[in-house]
Write a structure and sequence with these properties.
The complex is a heterodimer.
Chain A: H1 14-19, H2 21-25, H3 31-43, H4 45-63, H5 71-83
Helix pairs in contact in A: 3-4
Chain B: H1 3-11, H2 16-27, H3 30-46, H4 57-75, H5 88-105, H6 107-113, H7 117-126, H8 129-140, H9 145-152, H10 156-180, H11 189-200
Helix pairs in contact in B: 2-3, 2-4, 3-4, 4-9, 5-10, 5-11, 6-10, 7-10, 8-9, 8-10, 9-10
The chains are: A mainly alpha, B mainly alpha.
Protein backbone atom coordinates (compact mmCIF):
# COMPACT_ATOMS: atom_id res chain seq x y z
CA UNK A 1 0.00 0.00 0.00
CA UNK A 2 1.54 3.29 -1.06
CA UNK A 3 -1.12 5.76 0.04
CA UNK A 4 -0.35 7.83 3.12
CA UNK A 5 -3.22 7.66 5.55
CA UNK A 6 -4.28 10.51 7.79
CA UNK A 7 -3.25 8.53 10.85
CA UNK A 8 0.35 8.39 9.62
CA UNK A 9 0.73 12.16 9.25
CA UNK A 10 2.18 14.20 12.10
CA UNK A 11 0.23 17.11 13.62
CA UNK A 12 1.62 20.46 12.53
CA UNK A 13 1.15 23.93 14.00
CA UNK A 14 -0.55 26.89 12.33
CA UNK A 15 2.70 28.54 11.32
CA UNK A 16 3.90 25.42 9.52
CA UNK A 17 0.53 25.00 7.86
CA UNK A 18 0.38 28.54 6.46
CA UNK A 19 4.00 28.41 5.33
CA UNK A 20 2.94 25.55 3.09
CA UNK A 21 -0.26 27.30 2.00
CA UNK A 22 0.64 28.07 -1.62
CA UNK A 23 2.47 24.80 -2.21
CA UNK A 24 -0.67 23.11 -0.88
CA UNK A 25 -3.02 24.98 -3.21
CA UNK A 26 -0.67 24.51 -6.16
CA UNK A 27 -0.60 20.75 -5.65
CA UNK A 28 3.16 20.83 -5.14
CA UNK A 29 3.38 19.09 -1.73
CA UNK A 30 4.49 15.49 -1.34
CA UNK A 31 1.97 13.01 0.07
CA UNK A 32 3.12 13.30 3.69
CA UNK A 33 3.08 17.11 3.80
CA UNK A 34 -0.19 17.21 1.90
CA UNK A 35 -1.79 14.94 4.50
CA UNK A 36 -0.39 17.06 7.32
CA UNK A 37 -1.75 20.32 5.91
CA UNK A 38 -5.09 18.76 4.95
CA UNK A 39 -5.57 17.37 8.45
CA UNK A 40 -4.63 20.70 10.04
CA UNK A 41 -6.87 22.78 7.80
CA UNK A 42 -9.82 20.51 8.43
CA UNK A 43 -9.47 21.05 12.16
CA UNK A 44 -8.33 24.67 12.34
CA UNK A 45 -10.97 27.26 11.44
CA UNK A 46 -8.47 30.14 11.29
CA UNK A 47 -6.15 28.39 8.84
CA UNK A 48 -9.13 27.20 6.86
CA UNK A 49 -10.11 30.85 6.35
CA UNK A 50 -6.62 31.60 5.03
CA UNK A 51 -6.91 28.69 2.62
CA UNK A 52 -10.30 29.85 1.40
CA UNK A 53 -9.09 33.41 0.87
CA UNK A 54 -5.89 32.26 -0.90
CA UNK A 55 -7.96 29.96 -3.11
CA UNK A 56 -10.23 32.85 -4.07
CA UNK A 57 -7.20 35.04 -4.72
CA UNK A 58 -5.55 32.45 -6.98
CA UNK A 59 -8.83 31.92 -8.83
CA UNK A 60 -9.00 35.67 -9.46
CA UNK A 61 -5.41 35.63 -10.75
CA UNK A 62 -6.23 32.79 -13.11
CA UNK A 63 -9.39 34.54 -14.30
CA UNK A 64 -7.47 37.74 -15.06
CA UNK A 65 -6.16 36.15 -18.23
CA UNK A 66 -6.86 38.70 -20.97
CA UNK A 67 -7.55 37.48 -24.48
CA UNK A 68 -5.62 38.99 -27.36
CA UNK A 69 -7.71 41.77 -28.85
CA UNK A 70 -6.97 41.13 -32.52
CA UNK A 71 -5.58 37.63 -32.81
CA UNK A 72 -6.71 37.11 -36.47
CA UNK A 73 -4.80 40.21 -37.63
CA UNK A 74 -1.72 39.12 -35.73
CA UNK A 75 -2.01 35.62 -37.19
CA UNK A 76 -2.14 37.10 -40.72
CA UNK A 77 0.98 39.10 -40.00
CA UNK A 78 2.82 36.06 -38.63
CA UNK A 79 1.73 33.84 -41.54
CA UNK A 80 2.96 36.46 -44.02
CA UNK A 81 6.34 36.52 -42.30
CA UNK A 82 6.46 32.72 -42.30
CA UNK A 83 5.58 32.62 -46.00
CA UNK A 84 8.66 34.70 -46.72
CA UNK A 85 10.56 31.82 -45.07
CA UNK A 86 8.93 29.30 -47.41
CA UNK A 87 5.92 28.33 -45.29
CA UNK A 88 2.80 27.39 -47.23
CA UNK A 89 -0.52 27.80 -45.45
CA UNK A 90 -3.83 26.10 -46.22
CA UNK B 1 1.46 22.43 -48.57
CA UNK B 2 3.97 19.90 -47.24
CA UNK B 3 3.45 17.74 -44.16
CA UNK B 4 5.85 19.79 -42.05
CA UNK B 5 4.03 23.02 -42.76
CA UNK B 6 0.63 21.41 -42.26
CA UNK B 7 1.73 20.06 -38.91
CA UNK B 8 3.28 23.38 -37.91
CA UNK B 9 0.05 25.18 -38.76
CA UNK B 10 -2.07 22.66 -36.90
CA UNK B 11 0.03 22.45 -33.75
CA UNK B 12 2.07 25.63 -33.41
CA UNK B 13 -0.02 28.32 -35.04
CA UNK B 14 -3.08 27.36 -33.03
CA UNK B 15 -1.11 28.47 -29.96
CA UNK B 16 -0.74 31.99 -31.34
CA UNK B 17 -3.26 33.58 -28.96
CA UNK B 18 -1.47 31.98 -25.99
CA UNK B 19 1.94 33.13 -27.23
CA UNK B 20 0.57 36.61 -27.92
CA UNK B 21 -0.79 36.88 -24.41
CA UNK B 22 2.51 35.66 -22.97
CA UNK B 23 4.47 38.11 -25.14
CA UNK B 24 2.22 40.92 -23.97
CA UNK B 25 2.98 40.04 -20.35
CA UNK B 26 6.71 40.12 -21.07
CA UNK B 27 6.87 43.34 -23.06
CA UNK B 28 3.95 45.29 -21.58
CA UNK B 29 3.60 46.86 -25.01
CA UNK B 30 1.20 45.76 -27.72
CA UNK B 31 3.46 46.66 -30.65
CA UNK B 32 6.55 45.15 -29.03
CA UNK B 33 4.52 42.04 -28.20
CA UNK B 34 3.41 41.66 -31.83
CA UNK B 35 7.05 41.91 -32.95
CA UNK B 36 8.01 39.32 -30.36
CA UNK B 37 5.24 36.95 -31.47
CA UNK B 38 6.40 37.20 -35.07
CA UNK B 39 10.01 36.58 -34.04
CA UNK B 40 8.90 33.61 -31.91
CA UNK B 41 7.08 31.91 -34.77
CA UNK B 42 9.88 32.58 -37.21
CA UNK B 43 12.36 30.95 -34.82
CA UNK B 44 9.94 28.11 -34.16
CA UNK B 45 9.43 27.49 -37.87
CA UNK B 46 13.17 27.52 -38.57
CA UNK B 47 13.77 25.12 -35.71
CA UNK B 48 10.68 22.97 -36.11
CA UNK B 49 12.78 19.97 -37.13
CA UNK B 50 14.19 19.90 -33.60
CA UNK B 51 10.74 19.79 -32.01
CA UNK B 52 10.05 16.41 -30.49
CA UNK B 53 6.68 15.02 -31.68
CA UNK B 54 4.38 14.58 -28.72
CA UNK B 55 6.12 17.25 -26.63
CA UNK B 56 4.20 20.21 -25.25
CA UNK B 57 4.20 22.65 -28.15
CA UNK B 58 2.86 25.53 -26.08
CA UNK B 59 5.67 25.20 -23.55
CA UNK B 60 8.18 24.94 -26.41
CA UNK B 61 6.84 28.17 -27.95
CA UNK B 62 6.82 29.95 -24.59
CA UNK B 63 10.47 28.96 -24.12
CA UNK B 64 11.39 30.32 -27.56
CA UNK B 65 9.40 33.47 -26.85
CA UNK B 66 11.12 34.02 -23.53
CA UNK B 67 14.58 33.47 -25.05
CA UNK B 68 13.79 35.88 -27.87
CA UNK B 69 12.60 38.45 -25.38
CA UNK B 70 15.83 38.12 -23.37
CA UNK B 71 17.92 38.52 -26.52
CA UNK B 72 16.01 41.67 -27.44
CA UNK B 73 16.51 43.01 -23.94
CA UNK B 74 20.23 42.34 -24.11
CA UNK B 75 20.45 44.07 -27.45
CA UNK B 76 18.70 47.11 -26.08
CA UNK B 77 20.80 46.96 -22.90
CA UNK B 78 17.73 47.27 -20.78
CA UNK B 79 18.49 44.28 -18.61
CA UNK B 80 17.62 45.14 -15.04
CA UNK B 81 18.97 42.95 -12.28
CA UNK B 82 16.43 42.15 -9.65
CA UNK B 83 16.87 40.23 -6.42
CA UNK B 84 14.82 37.12 -5.89
CA UNK B 85 12.77 36.39 -2.86
CA UNK B 86 15.14 35.01 -0.26
CA UNK B 87 12.69 32.70 1.40
CA UNK B 88 9.53 31.39 -0.21
CA UNK B 89 8.03 30.36 3.13
CA UNK B 90 8.51 33.88 4.49
CA UNK B 91 6.69 35.28 1.45
CA UNK B 92 3.79 32.91 2.09
CA UNK B 93 3.76 33.85 5.75
CA UNK B 94 3.86 37.54 4.81
CA UNK B 95 0.83 37.11 2.58
CA UNK B 96 -1.07 35.34 5.34
CA UNK B 97 -0.19 38.12 7.76
CA UNK B 98 -1.53 40.56 5.17
CA UNK B 99 -4.74 38.56 5.12
CA UNK B 100 -4.90 38.67 8.92
CA UNK B 101 -4.63 42.47 8.80
CA UNK B 102 -7.34 42.64 6.13
CA UNK B 103 -9.61 40.45 8.21
CA UNK B 104 -9.54 43.04 10.98
CA UNK B 105 -11.49 45.52 8.91
CA UNK B 106 -13.41 43.13 6.70
CA UNK B 107 -11.28 44.20 3.76
CA UNK B 108 -10.75 40.57 2.71
CA UNK B 109 -14.48 39.96 2.36
CA UNK B 110 -14.86 43.21 0.42
CA UNK B 111 -12.08 42.21 -2.00
CA UNK B 112 -13.84 38.89 -2.57
CA UNK B 113 -17.07 40.69 -3.40
CA UNK B 114 -15.84 43.03 -6.15
CA UNK B 115 -14.52 42.59 -9.69
CA UNK B 116 -10.77 42.65 -9.21
CA UNK B 117 -9.85 41.50 -12.72
CA UNK B 118 -8.74 44.91 -14.05
CA UNK B 119 -6.85 45.65 -10.82
CA UNK B 120 -5.03 42.33 -11.00
CA UNK B 121 -4.05 42.87 -14.64
CA UNK B 122 -2.69 46.34 -13.79
CA UNK B 123 -0.83 45.00 -10.76
CA UNK B 124 0.76 42.17 -12.76
CA UNK B 125 1.98 44.68 -15.34
CA UNK B 126 3.66 46.70 -12.60
CA UNK B 127 5.66 43.74 -11.28
CA UNK B 128 9.36 43.53 -12.10
CA UNK B 129 10.01 41.20 -15.04
CA UNK B 130 11.17 38.08 -13.10
CA UNK B 131 8.09 38.17 -10.86
CA UNK B 132 5.74 38.96 -13.72
CA UNK B 133 7.11 35.99 -15.61
CA UNK B 134 6.63 33.60 -12.68
CA UNK B 135 3.06 34.63 -11.91
CA UNK B 136 2.11 34.68 -15.59
CA UNK B 137 3.38 31.16 -16.21
CA UNK B 138 2.00 29.55 -13.05
CA UNK B 139 -1.12 31.49 -12.17
CA UNK B 140 -2.31 32.88 -15.49
CA UNK B 141 -1.18 30.15 -17.90
CA UNK B 142 -1.61 27.28 -15.44
CA UNK B 143 1.84 25.71 -15.71
CA UNK B 144 3.45 23.71 -12.91
CA UNK B 145 6.52 24.99 -11.08
CA UNK B 146 8.65 22.54 -13.07
CA UNK B 147 7.22 23.54 -16.45
CA UNK B 148 7.58 27.23 -15.62
CA UNK B 149 11.19 26.73 -14.55
CA UNK B 150 11.93 25.13 -17.92
CA UNK B 151 10.39 28.05 -19.82
CA UNK B 152 12.20 30.64 -17.69
CA UNK B 153 15.45 28.62 -17.72
CA UNK B 154 15.89 28.93 -13.95
CA UNK B 155 15.83 26.38 -11.11
CA UNK B 156 12.44 25.33 -9.75
CA UNK B 157 13.25 26.93 -6.40
CA UNK B 158 13.81 30.26 -8.12
CA UNK B 159 10.45 30.14 -9.86
CA UNK B 160 8.80 29.23 -6.57
CA UNK B 161 10.39 32.06 -4.59
CA UNK B 162 9.64 34.58 -7.36
CA UNK B 163 6.08 33.32 -7.61
CA UNK B 164 5.46 33.61 -3.90
CA UNK B 165 6.90 37.11 -3.72
CA UNK B 166 4.80 38.11 -6.74
CA UNK B 167 1.65 36.78 -5.10
CA UNK B 168 2.36 38.64 -1.87
CA UNK B 169 2.95 41.87 -3.80
CA UNK B 170 -0.20 41.34 -5.86
CA UNK B 171 -2.27 40.67 -2.76
CA UNK B 172 -0.99 43.92 -1.22
CA UNK B 173 -1.87 45.77 -4.43
CA UNK B 174 -5.33 44.26 -4.34
CA UNK B 175 -5.94 45.49 -0.81
CA UNK B 176 -4.66 48.94 -1.83
CA UNK B 177 -7.06 48.90 -4.77
CA UNK B 178 -9.97 48.14 -2.44
CA UNK B 179 -8.96 50.98 -0.13
CA UNK B 180 -8.71 53.34 -3.11
CA UNK B 181 -12.30 52.45 -3.96
CA UNK B 182 -13.22 53.98 -0.64
CA UNK B 183 -13.56 50.88 1.49
CA UNK B 184 -13.92 51.77 5.15
CA UNK B 185 -14.67 48.82 7.38
CA UNK B 186 -15.32 48.55 11.09
CA UNK B 187 -12.76 46.67 13.12
CA UNK B 188 -13.70 43.20 14.25
CA UNK B 189 -11.42 42.89 17.24
CA UNK B 190 -12.61 39.48 18.37
CA UNK B 191 -11.74 37.91 15.05
CA UNK B 192 -8.47 39.83 14.83
CA UNK B 193 -7.20 38.49 18.10
CA UNK B 194 -8.01 34.91 17.20
CA UNK B 195 -6.36 35.18 13.77
CA UNK B 196 -3.24 36.90 15.05
CA UNK B 197 -2.66 34.26 17.65
CA UNK B 198 -3.19 31.50 15.13
CA UNK B 199 -0.31 32.67 12.96
CA UNK B 200 2.21 33.99 15.41
CA UNK B 201 1.98 31.23 18.00
CA UNK B 202 2.74 27.63 17.14
CA UNK B 203 -0.33 25.56 17.94
CA UNK B 204 -0.20 21.89 17.01
CA UNK B 205 -3.54 20.55 15.98
CA UNK B 206 -4.90 17.73 18.07
Amino acid sequence: MTTMTRAESEPIDCRTAVQRLWDYLDGELDAVRLAEVTAHVERCAACNEHVQFARTFLTALSASRAEVADAPALRSRVVSALQREGFSST
Amino acid sequence: MNDRDAHFEKSALTCLPDVARFARSLTRSESAADDLVQETFLRAYRGYASFQPGADVRRWLFTICHHAFLRIQEREQRMVLSSDGDDAELETLGAVMGHVAAQRSGLDAYVCSIDVGPAIRDAIEQLAAPYRLAVTLVDVEGMSYDESAQVAAVPVGTIRSRLFRARRLLQEQLFEYARDLGFTGAADTTRTTRESVSITSPRPDQ
